[in-house]
Amino acid sequence: MNLRLLKKALLRLGFCGAIGVLLLYAVFPFYYAVLTSLKPSSALFQVSYWLDKPDFSNYAAVLQQASFLQAIGNSVFVAVCVVALALFLSLTAAYALGRVKFRGRATVLLLVLGVSMFPQVAVLSGLFEVIRALGLYNSAWALILSYTIFTLPFTVWVLTTFIGQLPGELEEAAIMDGASPWVALTRVLLPLLWPALVTTGLLAFIAAWNEFLFALTFTLTDQERTVPVAIALISGGSQHELPWGLLMAASVMVTVPLVLLVLVFQRRIVSGLTTGALKG
Amino acid sequence: MSKLKLDKVNKQLGGLRILRDISLEIASGEFVVFVGPSGCGKSTLLRLIAGLESICAGDLLIDGRRVNDLEPRERGVGMVFQSYALYPHMSVYDNIGFGLKLAKTEKRSLRERVLETARVLQLDKLLQRKPKELSGGQRQRVAMGRAMAREPDILLFDEPLSNLDAALRVQMRNEIARLHASLGTTMIYVTHDQVEAMTLADKIVVLNAGRIEQVGSPRELYERPVSRFVAGFLGSPRMNFLPARLLAPGAHSLIETPALGRLAALPFDSSALAANSPLSLGIRPEHLALQKAPGDAGLRVVGVEYLGCETYVHLDVGEDEPLICRCAATAEWRQGDRVELQPELANLHLFDADGNALPRHPTPDAATLRALAQGYA
Ligand SMILES: Nc1ncnc2c1ncn2[C@@H]1O[C@H](COP(=O)(O)OP(=O)(O)OP(=O)(O)O)[C@@H](O)[C@H]1O
Ligand SMILES: [Mg+2]
Fold it and tell me: What is the number of the ligand closest to the CA of B209?
């Protein structure tokens, strides 16, 4: 009897320990960034894991840079446009791929997946030419275009899987009620796809928000830069000084909105929205 | 003029011929039931009529107009799906009114129509609920309401009761019958369930492997099946089939079966067949009377099923399956008893080797039968 209790307690301890390790592993870098951002630069290289008195001078300094605020605005614009565009395109594509039977459907799906396997660097020069040809160089639209290209395979794939799982009779019922494909998609299927849309939309947003390589390559001036590039270009008082405090403060400021976004939308990422549609 | 007419309709899917030359006429206000074994194409046929599947060859006419190429909504057809397929994010009210809304019905009359539909289906108190807050039977009714709200001329049902429990099934079955009587809409109904088919239908269509096997009233199909398939499909317990041999072809047949011996003067015309042709004798369980046999003669009782209202007695006839007789509940047969069979000759069925029923004479009166029987003996 006692042995069983002991075993149970030990198992529980091990479980909590494992969770603790995982949490530490995931959260520690972010925690240390927050910590660093709240230290005055004089205290920067004293290693400590706790803070006695937060110091907001780094944040104040970052916010005084007009170019940084501009970069945040650009990032918001780019990320929102990418999400909207990617969701619209992938939703309509996923409807066709998941519901309409046509020859070569599997091939198209594999192609979509294949495209997403290229590393960014591989397409960089080609994409650069395209953007120059379209006259989009050094504009937010260059980023929106390139991010959408890289987001679409993933969103299309996820939404196709989701749409394929919705009961076919639901859409047929809408057709019998006189719905066109567009109405069936927007009024009947879309409300059931919310969890998938929120998930893929969030991931697309995060990808666009954090992207660095394209942002660095396709923009030139402070007016068009996005946050990751702006942070990388923050420089210190001299050539040999890296302003860690400023960097960390800026990073924390652009990460917190993402965390909030996930927390807000996770309520919508609930399963079981289709309950009641079918028998049972 | 018929309400709905199918003329040599064919359907192929993936190189497979799923429906072959289906020709059928359905009158206005009729209740037609499609039955058949699983996979015979009932759902496919219904979906062709609805417009959810395209027709490969042949014509579909509604009110005399060819509708092959019309959209489902242009055909004036409503459909109740097997899984009710209610819109889970809409209230009952919106579910019923969705089609009307899409048809741009004016708000006041939309409301009236939805309320009227809900009243007919006794859904008045549930209008604000979501589908997940409804019981199975209520969901079923909402699905019917959604199909009815646009007041289609033809209502299609694909196994609408198949997932309900037995009691609810009976209740909903009666409700559908009541609805048909009060609305007078033409209804086409697919089911596996014989009782549903027999009780609801004006006309039953028996399908087998993509073909129409027989069309007729429940009574016609039960009493005069044109093939062994139909005979075996309708009726529970199903018809007994005994192998038989034709002794003397002619206007009245003389046959011999291992189990029953010689049967003379049967009311079937077998002149088209050769002597000694193999036949199949069909006897419904209720058309057999049992009598105690002396000693070791007759057939052995191998099983007795007591059901309260009646008793099924299983007899060993040397075949794989026992012969089943339907007896009164008071019958006191025991396993191992020996019995003699007395089939009702007028109610026998005779099928040739291909499973087609032999042509049957109008039932002769008893005196003729006796005279004929003596002539043979
Ligand atoms: N998309 C398809 N491609 C190829 N064959 C199909 C397709 N859909 C159905 N079939 C075939 O068509 C035949 C008829 O199917 P259908 O669904 O009409 O049968 P059913 O009579 O309704 O059966 P059940 O009583 O089980 O519902 C089946 O043999 C099935 O295998
Ligand atoms: Mg079916």
Answer: 1
pLDDT for B214-246, tens place per residue? Answer: 999 999 999 999 999 999 999 888 999 999 888
Q: How many CA atoms lie within 13 A of B335 on its CB side?
A: 6
Range of the domain at B254: 237-376
| Interstrand relation of B338-343 and B288-292 (parallel, antiparallel or unpaired) | antiparallel
Pairing of strands B240-248, B278-283: antiparallel
| CB-based contacts of B131, cutoff 8 Å, min separation 6 | A276, A277, B84, B86, B87, B88, B90, B92, B95, B139, B142
Q: Do B359 and B211 sit in the same domain of this protein?
A: no
Ligand 1, atom 26: nearest CA belongs to which residue? Answer: B38
> B150 touching A, CB under 8 A?
yes
**Neighbour count for residue B217 (Cβ, 10 Å):** 13
Instruction: From B182, B202, B230, give the residue that closes a domain.
Output: B230
By CB atoms closer than 10 A (0-12, 13-18, 19+), residue A9 is exposed
Chains A and B form CB pairs within 8 A to the count of 81
Tokens encoding B150? 């646009």
Residue B44 and residue B61 share a domain: yes
Residues B254 and B225 in one domain: no
B284 and B214 in a single domain? The answer is no
- Residues B264, B287, single domain; the answer is yes
- Among B230, B258, B285, where does a domain finish? B230
Q: Residue B181: which CATH number?
A: 3.40.50.300
Q: Quick one: closest CA in A to B142, which residue?
A: A277
| Same domain? B102 vs B16 | yes
Contacts of A169 in chain B (CB under 8 A): 81-83, 85
**In this complex, which of B73, B77, B88 lies closest to A274 when CB atoms are compared?**
B88
Which percentage of chain A shows pLDDT scores above 90?
20
pLDDT of residue B14: 81
Model confidence at A35: pLDDT above 50: yes
CA of A20 from ligand 1 middle (Å) equals 54
Task: Say if residue B211 is in the same domain as residue B280.
Answer: no
Q: Which residues line ligand 1 (CB under 6 A)?
A: B 13-14, 16, 18, 36, 38-44, 192
**Which stretch of A110-119, A124-133, B303-312 has the lowest confidence by average pLDDT?**
A110-119
pTM: 0.79
Mean pLDDT of chain B: 88
pLDDT of residue A259: 85
Q: Do A275 and B132 touch (CB under 8 A)?
A: yes
| From B16, B54, B196, mutation site for ligand 1 pocket: most ligand atoms within 8 A of C-beta | B16
Q: What is the CATH number of the domain that holds B372?
A: 2.40.50.140
Q: How many domains does chain B have?
A: 2
List pLDDT tens digits, range A49-89: 777 777 888 888 888 888 888 888 989 999 999 999 999 99
Structure tokens at B374: 């003596």
> A169, B139: Cβ pair inside 8 Å?
no
Let me know whether B101 and B223 are in one domain: yes
Q: What is the ipTM score, two decimals? A: 0.80
- Distance from residue B79's CA to the centre of ligand 1 (Å): 18
